Amino acid sequence: MSATTDGERLLERHGRALDAFTDRVHGIRADQWGAPTPCAEWSVRDLVNHLAAEQAWAVPLVRDGATIEAVGDAYDGDVLGADPVAAWDGAAAAARAAFREPGALDRTVHLSYGDTPAPDYCAQMVTDLVVHTWDLSRAVGAPERLPDDLVAHALHEVAPYAADLAGTGLFARPVPPPPGADEQTRLLCLLGRRP
Fold this sequence. Notes:
The termini are far apart. It is globular, with a radius of gyration of 16 Å. Helix 2 runs parallel beside helix 4 and helix 6 (148-158) runs parallel beside helix 8. By secondary structure, the protein is mostly helical. Strand 1 and strand 2 (114-117) form a beta hairpin. It is built from 8 helices and 2 strands; from the N terminus they run ααααββαααα. A two-stranded antiparallel sheet has the order 1-2. The chain has a single domain (3-190), classed as dinb family like domain (Four Helix Bundle (Hemerythrin (Met), subunit A), Up-down Bundle), CATH 1.20.120.450.
């Protein structure tokens, strides 16, 4: 399999993961923005804000080759403003464009834990989108079933280091999956969700 094919597949997954989250964002009712999510202490707005900031970071990191230090606190706090749906749409479009720019996947991204090949960063972004799409779905009553190939991708990404995530303070402890659990259930349980 050629690197081009791998890159195209990764970009296609990233695009579909963005689309899945976007679909849920567009379905949020006005009275749901303050609703709780499976992410401890995050409301629906907090969750969408987190993902919008993550997408915004992709532009300077991938397109410009910026460091975390150079970007500073540009995406701290509220990035959604008065129109959270439009803010999400803008951030998602910008991230999609940054990763699809010619040569983007050949670059090195300067992350907080070290220099990372752009495809690895993109794969992490896909995983974050997949898991948080489920979180948002659960919070607003949207369909929780995620595309099988995106779930498989996320499970493959997370499995090697899932045991260490609870120690970061950002994730709950893993939950034992029920016998015969499918990949989506196993992924969510690894990340401390209760499907």
